[in-house]
Specification:
Largest sheet: 7 strands, mixed
Distance between the termini: 87 Å
Structural class: alpha+beta
Strand content: 5-15%
Shape: globular
Number of helices: 22
Number of domains: 4
Radius of gyration: 28 Å
């Protein structure tokens, strides 16, 4: 125990710990919240562990709202200020027939017994003000050296719960930590167990992983593990491509390395579904493509096939329709010419909508930048310029949709046009003229132009 370590605990956490202590029970903040606090981060969730049996925890907090989150495994949720604090009884686990859930859970009185069942040393630390930091497995040292290490025997930890393999890779990606050799060996030895894990759990870990700052390194280094959950990527791993770098030298890498490199250029998004779709599209946009010449990857004409393979992956991973729809759209439009004028940008906006157009431009910037050859570099710069035009159109509120026109169907009906199809044809014609900057988006001029259209048609 290290009493010189001080962690700021929320008042709600302090209250739960102090209340249990007043009744004769130990209680600690535990796991990810302790890890994040030691890293100087603000934990989103605070989990606690106690030697109080779950029913006793409920009894002690009977004057408050509690939730039976997993009471058979000792977890009671204590609700304070509308936030749930999961409080779990010290326990040991044994028998993992399905490589995910323990067959037997026993409540214990020893904190060390509870901590040693956890996955990684950096997640096996506990803290309260009385005892300070409790770190039986040197998690603080591994934090200092940015290392992910299993608690105890790595092969046992991963054979107990194969999802820990993806959790390990996710931590490596998001935290930028290395995986120590024995832990890496244990992952590879038990990778086949990932086939027993539900698609929803695989998906949750995988998409968090590919959003990590070191995702490109993790994807390259542990490609054999990803092959277990994504057998479709085998051609990307096996296909070597030659390319000419900036110095004119011929070099070689795999399609998987290229896709992982391109993924590394994505910026973080506030809307996570958009980020998942963009990153998924970048990672899978070469699936199904037989092209091996890097400078032709963006002109191969196999977008429909690539998109179909990617769509099957999204469906198998139980992704939301929104994520799948956006990603497939980006892949299908991969080889479109990058718009170089404001009218061209507006036409693309009209076709795809703002969100997909914005993401398509970012998609282009990443895949072109990932290739690193001169001709493609020009396309990357063109995509940058197109993005600036897009921002300008949106910032200025410029017209690129029928609903942006300063004229509508009612105005045309007032002019004597009653046929619905003709009204649509007129509005689309006006929109095209406004986009092409042939006429301004002013009501008087739009009405005059509409009348001319009526006379000539």
């Amino acid at each position: 125990m290290e009493n010189n370590i001080k962690i700021h605990l929320p008042v709600e956490v302090e209250y739960i710990i102090d209340t249990l202590y007043s009744k004769g029970y130990d209680c600690y903040a535990v796991g990810g919240c302790v890890r994040d606090s030691l890293m100087g981060k603000n934990p989103q969730d605070w989990d606690l562990t106690t030697n109080a049996p779950p029913q006793k925890t409920k009894e002690i907090f009977s004057d408050m709202e509690t939730v039976d989150i997993g009471i058979q495994h000792g977890t009671v949720g204590i609700v304070i200020n509308k936030k749930v604090y999961e409080t779990t009884t010290f326990r040991s686990e044994s028998g993992y027939e399905d490589m995910r859930h323990p067959d037997k859970v026993e409540f214990v009185s020893d904190l060390k017994e509870d901590l040693k069942r956890r996955d990684f040393t950096i997640n096996a630390m506990a803290y309260n003000r009385k005892d300070g930091l409790v770190d039986f497995f040197h998690g603080q040292c591994d934090l200092q050296y940015k290392t992910i290490r299993c608690v105890g025997n790595s092969r046992e930890r991963f054979s107990e719960d194969a999802l820990r393999i993806l959790r390990c890779l996710r931590f490596s990606s998001t935290l930028g930590f290395s995986i120590e050799p024995e832990t890496a060996a244990g992952m590879r030895e038990n990778a086949a167990g990932l086939k027993k894990i539900s698609a929803e759990r695989i998906s949750s870990e995988f998409f968090k992983l590919i959003c990590g700052k070191d995702a490109k390194y993790v994807l390259r280094r542990y490609k054999d593990i990803f092959l277990v959950i994504l057998p479709e990527i085998k051609p990307l791993i096996n296909t070597k491509i030659k390319y000419r770098d900036y110095k004119g030298e011929i070099k070689e890498r795999t399609l998987w390395q290229y896709c992982a490199t391109a993924l590394g250029y994505v910026q973080s998004y506030q809307e996570k579904n958009h980020e998942y779709a963009l990153r998924g599209a970048i990672l899978f946009h070469c699936l199904g493509s037989p092209v091996v010449e890097i400078n032709k990857l963006t002109d191969c004409g196999f977008e429909t096939l690539c998109a179909a393979v990617a769509e099957r992956i999204f469906e198998r991973l139980r992704c939301s329709n929104s994520v799948s729809d956006i990603a497939v759209c980006l892949i299908k439009n991969r080889s479109l010419e990058v718009p170089e004028s404001k009218p061209a940008v507006k036409k693309l906006l009209n076709k795809l909508g703002y969100e997909k157009t914005f993401l398509l431009f970012d998609f282009w910037k990443c895949i072109y930048r990932g290739i690193n050859v001169y001709e493609i570099k020009k396309r990357y710069l063109a995509a940058l310029s197109a993005s600036e035009l897009l921002y300008e159109v949106v910032r200025n509120g410029e017209c690129y949709r029928v609903r942006d026109l300063n004229i509508n169907g009612k105005d045309l009906i007032s002019s004597g046009v009653t046929d619905g199809k003709k009204i649509g044809d007129i509005l689309n014609s006006l929109l095209n003229k406004v986009i092409e900057e042939e006429i301004p988006n002013e009501k008087g001029i739009l009405i005059e132009t509409a009348q001319e259209y009526i006379l000539n048609n």
